[in-house]
Every structure is written in structure tokens, then in C-alpha cells.
Amino acid sequence: MIYLMIFVFCFVSALGLGVLAGWTDFRGLTIPNILPALILASFVPAYAVSYFAGAEIFSSLGYHVGAGFFVLLITFILFSLKVIGGGDSKLLSAYALWIGFKALPIYLFYTALIGALLGVAALLLKRWKPFKNPSEGGWIARVQGGENKVPYGIPIAIGALIAFLSLGYPTLETLALFMASGSS
Fold first, then answer.
1. Mean of all residue pLDDT scores within the chain
2. pLDDT of residue 182
3. Which of 105, 110, 132, 174 is the most exposed, fewest CB within 10 Å of its CB?
4. pTM > 0.90: yes or no
């Protein structure tokens, strides 16, 4: 039972940190480095307890680490080309570690789709300026002021949630895997 509690704590923490990353990105177009680091760090005990409990929740560790490095490499190139920010790169990569190659296409698809919708919203905000007194320094104020910015932390967190759901992390089946293992 303790293994299950640790897994759930890590899983909920990873999602909560993503919500916080999206919020800070929306408020000031930055994602503090500590958030992707904590998401990455939360994977370690989640993987360990699932392994020790015999609950086959994750793919092999190599697939998860490989997915994280693959996304880090691609996003580093995008960062170098000034397509995305450094915080976006780290956040995408931290969640890729959790997701692994199995649901990586789902994660990237929904992240890109929601990012595109947010980009369209930015264009509309920039053109029509519907908010009279947006929060100074926030995304809406900056876009209405003429900047071409999108808080990608929001679609990254939503894409991760969708991938987590597709992987079955928050399901009764996952609970059953821990319970069947007879973990203490």
C-alpha cells in the first residue's frame, strides 16, 4: 500500500507542478527551472516503487530516459532557433521522461494542437485587444502590446495530462497492479 501511496503522490505532484508551470508561464512568460526539475525528480521514486512492487506501469527505464533525451535534443535545437523558450524545452523533456516512447506521439500531438490554438488566440488578442486593463507583464498584456508570445507551459501540461490518461496512470487498473503485487 505504501508503494501505491508514493506512486500517487509522485503522479499528482508531476501534474500539479505542470499546472503551476502553465500558470507562471501565463502570468509572466517564464517557467522557473525548479518546476521541470521537480517533475523529473518525481519520476524517480514513481518508477522505483512500481518496479519494486512488480507493477508493470512503465516501459523499460531505457525507453523513458531515451524519450526524455530525444525530446531534450529536439527542443534544444528549437530553442537554439528561438522557436521555443528554455523553460518550454525543459518542461517538455521532463514530461517525456514520465511518458516514454509509448505515448510520446500522443503527448506531442496534443501539446502541438493546443499550442496552435493558443497561438491563434494570441493573434486574435493582438489584433482586437479585448481586455482593457490586463495584468502588467502577463501574457495577455504583452500580446496586446504587440509581442508575439505564447505561454507554451499551458499546452505542455495539458498534453502531459492527456498522455498520462492514455497510459492509464490514474486508473483502477493501476491501483489493481499495486494491490495484486501485495506491496506493503
1. 95
2. 62
3. 132
4. yes
